[in-house]
């Protein structure tokens, strides 16, 4: 905001862990769907740590971020 003054608190271990987790999501349909649901306040934050999302983040290599928007809607359950 223009004119806002102050300092943000330094990031702690939880912030760094959450940042690492969420940087791995772009392009992954399972994690991306959960993330968008949380951002839209349609799902609780804990849905980011559901088994399917956690498995995608922790066990798979990060998917590349798409260069362009998708040309078709995501398939449910994909």
From TrEMBL:
Residues 59-78 are annotated as: Disordered. Residues 61-78 have a biased composition (Pro residues). It comes from the Bacteria. This is Uncharacterized protein.
